[in-house]
Amino acid sequence: MMRSQQIKLCAATACLLLGTLAMPSLVSGAEKVDAKTFDRSVATFIENHCIDCHADATQKGKLNLEALKPTFGDPATVDRWIKVYDKVTSGQMPPHDKPRPPAKDITTASDWLKAKLYDVTLAKQVAQGPTVRRLNRVEYENTVHDLLGIEAELKSMLPTDGQAHGFDNVADGLSISSVLMEKYLRASSKALDDAIFHGFKPQTTTRKTLIKDLKKLEGHIKEGTYLVRDDAVVWFNTGYPQMTAHGFDAPEAGRYRVRIECWPYQPDGRSLAMSVYAGNFYQGDRFFVGYFDVKGSPDKPTIVEIDVTMQKRDTIRVIPYGVHGHKVHNSGKHGKVKPSEYKGMGLAVRSIEAVGPIHEWPTVSHKRLFGKLPLDNVDEGWPGGNRPKSPIYGVRSSDPKADVTSALQAFARRAFRRPVDDKQLAPIIALVQQRMANGYEFEKAARVGFQAMLCSPQFLTLNSASAELDDYAIASRLSYFLWSTMPDDELLKLAEAGKLRDAKVLRQQVERMLNDARSAALTDNFVGQWLDLRLIEDTSPDSKLYPEFDHMLQWSMVRETEQFFQTMLRDDLSVTNFIHSDFITINESLAALYGIKGVRGYNAMQRVKVPADSHRGGVLTQASVLKVTANGTNTSPVLRGVWILENIFGSPVPPPPEAVPAVEPDIRGATTIREQLAKHREVKSCNACHRLIDPPGFALESFDVIGGWRTNYRSLGKGDRVEKEIEGRRVQYRVGPQADPADQLLDGSKFADIDELKKLLLQDKRQIALCVAEKLMIYGRGSGLSFADRVDIGRIVDQVADKDFGLRSLIHEIVQSKAFLTR
Amino acid sequence: MQIEPRISMKQTSVTRRNFLRGTGVALALPILDANATHAADAKVKGKTEGNTGAGNKHRMIMICTSLGMHPAYFFPEGTGDAFKASPYLKPLNDARGRYTVFSGMQHPRVDGGHSAENSFLTAAPHPGRSSFKNTISLDQYAAERMGHLTRFGYLALSTSYSRSLSWTRGGVEIPAEGKPSEVFARLFLDGSEKEIKQQVARLQDGQSIMDIVSKQAKDMQRKLGKTDQQTLDQYFNSVRELENRLIKAEQWTVKPKPQVKVGPPKDIDDKADFIGRTNLMYDLAHLAIQTDSTRLITLFVGATNSPPPIKGVDQGWHNLSHHGKDPLKIEQLKLIEVAQMEALGGLLKRLKDNKEGDSNLLDKTMVFFGSNLGDASSHHNRNLPVLLAGGGFKHAGHIAFEADKAPPLANVFVSMLQRMGVETDQFASATGRLSELKPA
User: Fold this and answer.
1) Nearest chain A Cα to B239, which residue?
2) How many CA atoms within 13 Å lie on the side-chain side of A90?
């Protein structure tokens, strides 16, 4: 079934529309009238411009237009007509070597088809209603976190979600199996274990540790690997021995506010940063917290303050970034300098302070689950003599039966994101009461009820509660679009008041939601998938070819694109900025890669004007995009071309025919990809698509696999050596053949390089906006687009033309559209 | 102008994979045996008892290494029994005569480079396309029919992440387990009496919950009254299926687990040491088969980026596989891939040396090994490096098919299923069993 075409209007609109369109009984009558206009417009057009190649006898591209009748009851026929419409209106058909039909003919034919296809696809969507889908694992985790007030990682307990139409929140990719149900059962169990408090009351303590006093570091200090200066430990190396604050360990699990007091030692005018890790380093279980700039002096140290959730006995590790550790060794041999004699920059850390575990009392989870019930000493009647020293805290209820019922009722409204009637809840309450009767304690019995709700279809699925989108469903649609989580109280209250279809209210809410920290999810999940940022770690660049690549650079790449998107969203900048912008958002690491001077510091991405001699600006020239479209060793104009067509032009490319050998990469410096591809393009059947795909990909040949600008490829075989040192080592790569970015687009317009290509692309601003709008609509609704949706998106885009296609305005118009609010 | 970082220093908050720390239920739910609802599709030969008897326990271990095997070093010269062992087949010399290596084979219409790993055991076409929907994997197909015979219907293992070769009938990936110590605990360590009691209680709660939510789903379906109810249908069937499996799991929970002489393995933290991790998984696979804890095991050896701890290798595995014909890279790649084949050779030897009745485990266990990539450097999915060892076949040495004339690789799967006692001549793209491969 074509699930991408499911849409439902609210009842009133549906009747209106169906009244003027085609109710099943009216179809035959309407089609008779249609037949005449069809003959005049479409049939004439086909006869004049298409039939030579697509007749019964010819059937080029397996298309027989003689057999294609203007009947729209069968979905396959509708799909074929849509394809015909797309090919003709996009200018791909008739082919370029045939005379172009007069514009008037195209309009007459396409307008008729457009109206017809709009009606039939919309009617189908209305009949089917909004697609029911389950939450994906990111949404699941966020929702459970919000519901229960916990932080436990849950998403990695669930299977990876399938993607459809480019996103993992689309119904088609989100199937349900018993394996998944089993994982939901486990994940909810884990979540409730964390949420239901039963144990000793946590004590918040403040611990400040002077690094020089850490026992574990004594040996290294004695050896001279670490120096002690101004009461701080100073070091220069990034590898062994690692500066791990063993002995500082977290006294118990929970959230800690950690403050690290540090400064650059012997600053040499360059920037210093440090990476911070937390975890149990004995067990190898650690995670990256972030990079932080280190400035100041012993008198005015930098205090890096971070909130970290740690387990018992976890500690902190700090690694300097920007030092020249390769020059230093405490042996002082092999051309290295002893730390005490070294004159270069090092990292000085004086103290680490941790306040925690930070918690509210009663815990947030307790309040979310049990409301006002006391979280109290439940230590009475401890069996045997092993009574612990501290009292045990748990939920106390004087009227368990009534208390559990009201707790479950309050929870249900939030969990199901709408009011819940008693009848719906009755079986769950009955189960809990029965468990109590069987001797389960209050918390344990209540837990079964909460878990049932976390496994129920009302919780796990969207659009399933009513046949058309009511205000509650709209509240959820908004919050999963902009926040990837459940609606908050304000949205639910507006839904209750029936105000969520009010244009003004919607505008206010979208503004509020985009200004809320939760909207970071839109960047993470929408941009992360649209621009494939999630794939950033999939390849690791060859260290001989790209010795300048490091973790900092990769970390910065993703942040650049995220920050760029957020800047556009915040300032309502034109979507044309995705193609070209006069600003970029970079840090020192990216500035070095891009050859841009004057950017200092790593932690924050800074908005910088693109220098005149730079080729940067827009997402196509961002290192993240250039890296995810390459494989770590080399680049392929084909893969990058396909990527641009799909993600920037919004026109997916047909897959290559089977059994066509792929181009075999060769980095020995003898051949270039252009030479290899040229052979490919001599074959007519290959060239049909490759003349579409390759050109934009070739423009990106000026950028290597980590996003650096290049005039020549790097080679590990032939070529001149390069006079350049990185970390004290001469680079091993050589100057390979020249990269040639010039080509021409399908319409014959030539470009010499990426700058000229961008100018060509910017000529059609509307097309760029259409592509972005379509992606946003797919993601925002969690369903594929019907023909009617696409037509409506055209209208949405036209509405923001006077705002220069501003990104924020575009999101507003999408939310206000019928396609979003009713289908 | 300075832009605030998305996560400012003050607000940086880091959550983590703390569930891995075992703060959850100490005793994890067993991987439940598959439902019996599909068992009627294909009959298991001699009914189920036939495959439970000590003499007739057939097993399958299916392994996919995700970055190909350098073709020049993998495929042997000569065909039939007289083939000359290639550099990569030499480590399997001990099992010579007990395996068949294929050349020229692939899954028809399975392309898409790396994404073909999703189809390695399913043969579902075009895994790289956005419209791709996966289908059931070989192990799950077998598990539907015989999974109920053992404590664990199947084991889905992985050396990295949770990527898996096992996919459900509906095309959902079954997350693989990557921690040998945890798998070992589930297989062989009994919980305390209290833990078992808690486990049983939670399984009973789970059953009650499934009962309630399945009714909710029915109510919602009725209320919606739409033509398209795929999601709710799937939900309803999944819940019913899980309820049955929870009942089975409860029965297994109270039975003691088999005891083995070795202690729990120590997990390898270094992701790059995927060969060490593979060996740990091979050890577990051997133990699981030996104790008849399961008869179906998949192992996915996922790509890694850092250099593995092998002498002479200073580049990452994934990077080396994109060798671009650089001879130095190919030599390093060879060191890695030979080490992989040595690990496989070790598994085959352990199975062969393990007597079972008057036979040995290798003759009772089909070990299917290969890659979804025919050539990692050009990323194609044809002429896959694949071999089948053990399982009591009359092994034919090197079966070489001419390019484009090979039967679908899934024909090998049909032969394997038939060997398992499943009466079927169909699986995914298969056109029948592989006639060149005969039971001993």
Assistant:
1) A178
2) 14
Interface touch A253/B130, C-beta < 8 Å: no
For residues A757, A762, A763, A768, the Cα torsion angle rounded to the nearest 10 degrees is 120
Residues 6+ apart with CB under 8 A from A46: A54, A65, A109
* Closest chain B residue to the Cα of A561, Cα to Cα: B6
Do residues A602 and A550 make contact, with C-beta atoms less than 8 angstroms apart? no
Which pTM value belongs to this model?
A: 0.87
- pLDDT at res. A521: 98
Set of chain A residues whose Cβ sits within 8 Å of the Cβ of B210: 181, 455
Burial of B366 (0-12, 13-18, 19+ CB in 10 A): buried
- Distance set, CA A17 to CA A13, A125, A815, B251, B415 (Å): 6, 12, 21, 57, 57
A649-684 per-residue burial string, b: 16 or more CB within 10 A, e: under 16: bbeebeeeeeeeebbebbbebeebbbeebeebeeee
What pLDDT sits at residue B242? 94
- Separation CA B366–CA B364 (nearest Å): 7
- Put simply, whether B131 touches A (Cβ < 8 Å) is yes
With an 8 Å Cβ cutoff, is B358 touching chain A? no
Chain B partners of A540 at a C-beta cutoff of 8 Å? 305-306, 316, 318-319
Peptide bond into B256 cis (omega under 30): no
Kindly state the helix (H) or strand (E) to which residue B99 belongs, with its residue range: strand B99-103
Give the lowest-confidence range in A331-340, A467-476, A785-794, B431-440. Answer: A331-340
> How many Å apart are CA A309 and CA B340, to the nearest integer?
38
**Binary contact (A428, B208; C-beta < 8 A):** no
b/e code A258-281 from CB counts within 10 Å (16+ = b): bbbbbbbbebeeebbbbbbbbbbb
Q: What is the mean pLDDT of chain A?
A: 89
pLDDT at A119 over 90: yes
Token digits of residue A779: 């993601």
Q: Does B383 touch chain A (CB under 8 A)?
A: no
Tokens of residue A44, six digits: 């004439």
DSSP A465: S
- Find chain B residues with C-beta within 8 A of A193's C-beta: 23-25
Residue contacts between A and B (CB atoms, under 8 Å): 302
CB–CB of A157 and B21 under 8 A? Answer: no
Is B273 within 8 Å of chain A by CB? no
Q: What is the pLDDT of residue A678?
A: 80
- Rounded to two decimals, the ipTM of the complex is 0.85
Q: Do A605 and B316 touch (CB under 8 A)?
A: no
